[in-house]
Hints:
The protein is mainly α. It has 14 helices and 4 strands.
Amino acid sequence: xxxxxxxxxxxxxxxxxxxxxxxxxxxxxxxxxxxxxxxxxxxxxxxxxxxxxxxxxxxxxxxxxxxxxxxxxxxxxxxxxxxxxxxxxxxxxxxxxxxxxxxxxxxxxxxxxxxxxxxxxxxxxxxxxxxxxxxxxxxxxxxxxxxxxxxxxxxxxxxxxxxxxxxxxxxxxxxxxxxxxxxxxxxxxxxxxxxxxxxxxxxxxxxxxxxxxxxxxxxxxxxxxxxxxxxxxxxxxxxxxxxxxxxxxxxxxxxxxxxxxxxxxxxxxxxxxxxxxxxxxxxxxxxxxxxxxxxxxxxxxxxxxxxxxxxxxxxxxxxxxxxxxxxxxxxxxxxxxxxxxxxxxxxxxxxxxxxxxxxxxxxxxxx
Length: 367
């Protein structure tokens, strides 16, 4: 049923993309594609026996972002970082269009639509052994009168348009900001936290462009991604891939004039408690603490964990980076030895001496 809903929404989005009526076209395309991926990912989780499609606290269906995170840790169908970025861009564009407004240049819209269709087909085949062509005729897939251009070229062209709109005397700041939201949403390809677009981000970018800063300075994360195109005509396939780009400097001072700084919802990023992390990683709760210490996940470094302070209460929460780290190391370590070496002993007990670890790849060091 969820897969059928996903296909229905995808068909609606494709029909709107190819339609003659331009009124509400971008809104319909983005809303439909976002819903298509949400239903597909939840259908995959249900089909693979995942029990986390409903939130334990609210008893409601999880968000698209939560579904992406869980599919990234789902054996057999694992969604890669590049694939997750493709979905997040669609979601960020949809969010900005649904709750406010943005301008998406036709070339960028086509590139995102084609990348979405390509990824939908990949996931459908990976999870269910089906191809999109079995449900939708090739002749109705997103069509453009122009061949797909590279993401770098499209972003450069859009950046120049924005710069022209912000020149003195143009009085086109509203349109420029609408286009800026599109580029900020595109940063989701490399940064999951970039999906939330705030007016503070838009304002910083606007000031940076008016100060004649380069695109690489204002949007450094977009320097690290590119698009690959295969095939031609109706059978063209588009995928977004990461490449080596400029380094990103993270600044703690909110008053620093840096157009590339993005605000981050820490509660959204660090959404797991210690017990939830252990359960999702498949590690007994009693041994999960030792494994976290062994991997250094409790360092409060804003990568693996973050300590939230509410008055006199302090809560250490974990990100999906911690979950992936725990899952990846389970096959390489002796969990019993790690538990023995890191556990806290009562004052009247002494540690047991275990023989040296002989398992291949074991990184536990009781000493």
